[in-house]
Amino acid sequence: MNSKKGFTVLELIIVAIFASLLLILFFVQKSNIDAMERDEDRKTAINAMYYAIEEGFYKEHGYYPDTISEDNIKVIDPALWTDPTGINLGTGGSSYSYEAANCKEGKCKEYTLKATLEKEDDYIKHNRN
Questions:
Q1: Which residue of 4, 11, 78, 118 has the smallest Cβ count within 10 Å?
Q2: Which residues contact 75 (CB under 8 A, 6 or more apart)?
Q3: What is the separation of C-alpha 85 from the centre of its chain, rounded to a whole number of angstroms?
Q4: CA 91 to each of CA 80, 82, 88: distance values in angstroms, whole numbers, following the listed order
Q5: What pLDDT, on a 0 to 100 scale, did the predictor assign at position 39?
Q6: Residue 3 above 90 pLDDT?
Q7: Which residues face 115 on adjacent strands?
Q8: Residue 49: closest CA among 1, 92, 21, 81
Q9: Number of domains within the chain
Q10: Domain membership flag for residue 95
Q11: How far is 64 from 59, CA to CA, in rounded Å?
């Protein structure tokens, strides 16, 4: 009897296709997980800004600022002003935005903080007072 050991070409092709599908699935899931992590970073930054404005700036001054930055909100980590893509709040293309409303001479009664998320709806915080 003539017996040959090894794999057929068809078996090798099936294994290669299966391995390729697993790699594609892995990279798609990794991309989704990375995007969800960036979204969580954005939410953390917006929450830090929100509490710094409410518990710090508003309690001290009795009004909200017309703009926010490291200069007037000094109690949070400066790295939080930069979104996960490396763009600072207030700069075009940033996923963070601060919109003051009902302002007079730089003193505002309302504001909205927003982060544009990749995998969820926008994350929005409004003034509480």
A1: 4
A2: 52, 56
A3: 8
A4: 14, 10, 6
A5: 96
A6: no
A7: 96, 123
A8: 81
A9: 1
A10: yes
A11: 9
H-only helix segments in the chain: 9-51, 59-61
Q: Which of 101, 100, 96 is nearest to 116 (CA)?
A: 96
What confidence tier does 104 reach under pLDDT thresholds 50, 70, 90? very high
According to DSSP, the β-strands at 107-115 and 96-104 are antiparallel
Task: List the structure tokens of 112.
Answer: 């909205």
Q: Which of 96, 118, 113 is nearest to 57 (CA)?
A: 113
pTM: 0.82
Mean per-residue pLDDT over the chain, rounded: 93
- Give domain status of residue 111, yes or no: yes
Place of tokens 């309302």: 110
Beta strands 64-65; 96-104: pairing state: unpaired
CB burial of residue 98 (10 Å; 0-12, 13-18, 19+): buried
Give the 3-state secondary structure percentages of the chain, helix then strand then coil, rounded to 5: 45, 20, 35
What residue numbers bound the domain in which 87 lies?
10-126
The single-letter code of the amino acid at 10 is L
Q: How far apart are CA 118 and CA 121, in angstroms?
A: 8
Residue 4 lies in a domain: no
